[in-house]
Amino acid sequence: MPQTRPAFPQEFRANAVRLLRSSGKSKRELARELGCSANSLREWAKRTDLDSGRRTDGLTSEEREEFGKLRRQVKVLEEERAILLKAAAFFATETTGRTR
């Protein structure tokens, strides 16, 4: 799904969360002033809380990054396995002269 606008820089997100916590304004009101969605602001605050240890009901940014890396590795390994299975089947038929 293509993004309609570039992602907000990390510094902007951090400042927005600080403002949310110190201004006393609602997420919706502050988001309107900052030009982002209230849901984005909520997600940024949640991510900040997870990363700082204030929340434990999700993955930290570091854990999410590692999880993504591991998912990509699994995909590569599955592709390599499929190639090896096909190669083994090919060579098995070549050496025995039989087809499946």
Overview of the structural elements:
The protein is mainly α. The chain folds into 2 domains: 1-58, Winged helix-like DNA-binding domain superfamily/Winged helix DNA-binding domain (Arc Repressor Mutant, subunit A), CATH 1.10.10; 59-100. The protein contains 4 helices and no strands. The chain has helices at 10-23, 27-34, 38-52, 61-96. Helix 1 (10-23) packs across helix 3 and helix 2 (27-34) crosses helix 3. The longest helix has 36 residues, at 61-96. It is elongated, with a radius of gyration of 24 Å. The mean pLDDT is 91.
Task: List the SSEs and their pairings.
Layout: H1 10-23, H2 27-34, H3 38-52, H4 61-96
State the gist of this model.
The chain is mainly α and 100 residues long. The protein has helices at residues 10-23, 27-34, 38-52, 61-96.
Low-confidence stretches: none
> Roughly how many Å is the radius of gyration?
24 Å
Largest sheet: none
Order of helices and strands: HHHH
Would you count the extended β strands for me?
0
Residue share in helices? over 70%
Number of domains: 2
* Named CATH architecture of the largest domain: Orthogonal Bundle
**Structural class label:** mainly alpha
Mean pLDDT: 91
CATH class of the largest domain: Mainly Alpha
What are its keywords?
Arc Repressor Mutant, subunit A; 4 helices; 2 domains; single chain; elongated; 100 residues; mainly alpha; 0% strand
